[in-house]
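At this stage, I needed to go through a protein sequence along with its fold in token form, as given directly below:
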Amino acid sequence: DGSPVKMGDTTTPVRALIKAQAHIGREEAAFRASLPGVALHQGEYDLYMDWVYQYGTGAWLKSSMRRELLAGNYVPACNALLDYRKLTSARQEGPGWVVSKRDAQGRPTRWEFDCSTPGNKVCRGVWTRQQERHAKCMALQ
């Protein structure tokens, strides 16, 4: 729900489920409202909701997946899942990070790392998760 979490914070399993369900319910309502007239298979609905839960409604509203679905382009929407494979940071975190934005004087202000980089130990899971979503999506087409 956006509440700050600190190391050492604890909760009960029941309380965690209640918070998760409330958060997912809000995200789900916004997701449904963002796709007027779009028919989705239950599997597509589930995988795009999983994406929304990871990246947020704001990212979904600007996403190429949503744009393609609104246009009735289901396969390109699946393929667009693979575009979401990068991490960004306000500083260069290490090898493999490249400048993605600069200020007016040309100084770097944002860095990014491509999680699809073979053998990376930075964010490999981001890429494998997108590949899994893409495979599931394509299997439904």
